[in-house]
Write a structure and sequence with these properties.
Number of helices: 7
Number of strands: 7
Oligomer: single chain
Largest sheet: 5 strands, mixed
Helix content: 40-55%
Distance between the termini: 41 Å
Strand order of the largest sheet: 3-4-5-1-6
Length: 219
């Protein structure tokens, strides 16, 4: 059953991914991609939910949930007696979760991303500075720009607060989301602009590195 589910997901994912190179080419040529916004959003969602950072987080949550259940059962006297000398065994247990279980977490994760998308407008920027964009194995990032860097927590937002979303597409192109752009995006679609500010490119790269999970990619 799990294998059939995985195969069905991969078939679905491949249909989304097959469209991406053509969309990127159009973006690089500065063509309108407003007829492909759904494909763009699907690809961004895919790049957020299927990466190890998200899958591992879902498995850690399940592991903590199972350990908390074990502690409740132990406190209620419903577990066997602990071996002598190992009374604190639950403090040292490592819970392993079947990786297939994190597939089920992708659906609520996708719904949560949809709520973020509803709060921002989208655009694309061509990097005209001498510093290329970086990317990582966790390439879709969003954060609260009103929080100073030292206090920033990945993916933590205020209910009605500002949002910045970044998705590096190539060393010279990035798709970004910004809450103040929401109304303009709703009326005009995805706009394209140039970015020549070296300081802003560096700030984007810092966030990309901050959100990276295990690997940062550069030219």
């Amino acid at each position: 059953m799990a294998r059939r589910i995985i195969q069905a997901l991969e078939d679905c994912f491949s249909k989304i991914e097959d469209k991406w190179p053509g969309i990127v080419d159009r973006l690089h040529r500065r063509e309108s991609v407003n007829d492909s916004l759904l494909d763009i959003f699907q690809f961004i969602i895919l790049q957020r939910t299927r990466v190890p950072a998200s899958r591992d987080a879902a498995e850690r949550i399940d592991a903590e949930r199972m350990l908390a259940l074990a502690r409740r059962l132990d406190a209620a006297g419903e577990l066997p007696s602990k071996p002598e000398g190992f009374e604190d065994i639950l403090d040292h247990v490592e819970v392993s979760i079947n990786p297939h279980q994190s597939i089920h977490a992708m659906v609520p994760m996708m719904r949560g991303i949809g709520q973020v998308f509803d709060r921002v407008g989208f655009g694309a920027s061509h990097n005209k500075s001498e510093i290329p964009f970086l990317t990582s194995d966790n390439p879709v990032i969003w954060f609260d720009p009103s929080v100073k860097d030292s206090d920033l927590q990945p993916y933590v937002l205020q209910p009605d607060g500002p949002i910045v979303l970044l998705f590096p597409v190539s060393p010279s192109l990035i798709i970004y989301g910004d809450s103040p752009m929401r109304d303009q995006f709703a009326s005009e679609g995805l706009g394209v602009a140039d970015l020549s500010d070296t300081g802003l490119v560096e700030a984007i790269n810092r966030q990309v590195c901050r959100f990276g999970y295990q690997t940062i990619y550069a030219q």
